[in-house]
Amino acid sequence: SDLNVLEHKAQEVQDVLARVRGIGEITVVKQLGQPSLVIDVDRARIARYGLNVADINGLIEAAVGGTPATQVVQGEKLFDLVVRLQPRFRQTPEAIGNILVATPGGQQVPLKELADIREENGASFIYRENSSRFIGVQFSVKGRDLASAVEDARRQVAAKVKLPEGYRAVWGGEYEEYEASRDQLKLIVPLTIALIFIILFLLYNNFKFPFITVLAVLLSGPIGGLIALRLSDTPFSVSSGIGFLALFGVSVQTAVIYISYANELRGNGMGITEATREAAILRLRPIMMTALVAALGLLPAAFSTGIGSDSQRPFALVIVGGLFSRLLISVFLMPALYALVARPGDRLEV
Predict the structure, then answer these.
(1) Do 302 and 224 meet the contact criterion of CB atoms below 8 Å apart?
(2) CA 339, 341, 344, 349 torsion: positive or negative?
(3) Residues with Cβ within 8 Å of residue 91, at least 6 apart in sequence
(4) 36-51+60-119: CATH number
(5) Where are the alpha helices (DSSP H) in 98-173?
(6) What is the pLDDT of residue 123?
(7) Residue 310, Cβ neighbours under 10 Å: how many?
(8) How would DSSP label each residue in 134-151?
C-alpha cells in the first residue's frame, strides 16, 4: 500500500467522523514526516564507467554509515573498528553528492554525476498487521452508545470515502470486541432459555408449567431492566445483555417457588382455585426475600460511578430493575397463568 494514499484516505475518514454525532477526540496516527535522503542511481551512466549498483551502494554504505575495517581486542571482548567519512563530508546532500567514486579505469567521478540525490518527506513509522500496511484513525465516543455511533460512522464513511482497489477499512478496538460478544450472545441467549425449559420439564414432567414459567419471566423481568436502562440513560451493551441472562435465572427461581408450593397444596387435596390463591399469599414472603436479596446486593454496583462502572453498572441496573418489575407483575401474573393451565388430572411435582 502507498503510504501517501493511506494518509490521504485517513484524513478523509477523519473529516467524515468529525460530523458524526457522539464521536470526538479524532486523531490520525502520523506515518509520514521523517526527512529521508533518496539516492536514485542512473544505471545508464554507471554502465558507461563499468560500474554497477552494488558498487555505488557499497560506497555509500562505507562513506555514510561506515563499515568494519578490523577488530579491536580488549581483554576477552572483540569490538568492530568502523571507518567512515568525517561529518563534514557526509552531513548534507551536497556533500554526499561530492563523494568521489573510483571507476575500473582509474577515474574519480563525483557521486552526483552518477545518481540523482534529493531529500524527500519519508515514513517515520510503518505499521503492519497480517503483512499489510495500515494507518490508524483513533476516536472516542461520548454521549452516545458505542454500537450506534460506530454503525452510523461506518455508513457515512462507506458512502463518502471511496477506497482504491486493494484498500479496506477495518473497525477494531472496543467495537470489534463488542461485535464478537454480540455474536456469542445470539447463541447463548436461546441456548440458556432452552436449557431452563429442559430443566423445568425434568422437574414437572410436563410442558405447561415450564411454559408458563418462561412466559412469566419474559413478560415481567425485561420490562424493569429496560426501564432502568432508559431512566439512567445507559445504552444497551454486552454487559447489560449478560445481566438479562442472570435476571432470567433469578426470576425462574421465584416462579419455581410459587408453582412447587401450589402443586404441593393441590397434592394435599386442595382445589385449583384455592391452591392458586393460597400459594400466592403464603409464598409471597419467600419470593420477595429471594428477589430483594439479589436486588439490594447489587444496588451499590447499579449506582457506582468509579473505575470499572462502565461494565458493572449496566449489569447491575438490569438485574435490580428487572427484579423489582418481576415482583410487582408476577404477584398477579403467576396465579393467573397457573389457573389458566392447571387441570384436575395434572401430574403434580414439587
Answers:
(1) no
(2) negative
(3) none
(4) 3.30.2090.10
(5) 146-160
(6) 66
(7) 12
(8) E--EEEEE-SS-HHHHHH
- Determine the pLDDT at residue 313: 87
C-alpha cell at 285: 414472603
Residue 285 CB neighbour total at 10 angstroms:
9
Are 112 and 45 within 8 A, CB to CB?
no
Contact 337, 331 (CB under 8 A): no
Distance CA 98, CA 184 (A): 66
Residue-by-residue DSSP string for 260-321? HHHHHHHHTT--HHHHHHHHHHHTHHHHHHHHHHHHHHHHHHHT--STTHHHHHHHHHHHHH
> What is the sign, positive or negative, of the torsion defined by CA atoms of 254, 255, 258, 264?
negative
Q: Do domains 36-51+60-119 and 175-341 have the same CATH topology?
A: no
| CATH annotation of 175-341 | 1.20.1640.10
Query: Which pLDDT band, with edges at 50, 70 and 90, does 31 fall under?
Result: low
Collapsed DSSP state (helix, strand, coil) of residue 92: coil
Percent of the chain topping pLDDT 70: 97
Architecture of domain 1-31+125-171: 2-Layer Sandwich (3.30)
Reference 40, options 124, 112, 123; nearest CA is 112
> How does pLDDT run across 81-134, given as a tens digit for each residue?
999 999 898 888 899 999 999 999 888 999 999 999 988 776 667 777 777 888
- Top pLDDT among 36 and 53 is at 53
Residue 52's pLDDT band, with cuts at 50, 70 and 90, is very high
> How many CB atoms sit inside 10 A of residue 104's CB?
9
- Rg (C-alpha) for the chain, rounded Å, is 37
Q: Where are the domains of the chain?
A: 1-31+125-171, 36-51+60-119, 175-341
pTM over 0.85: no
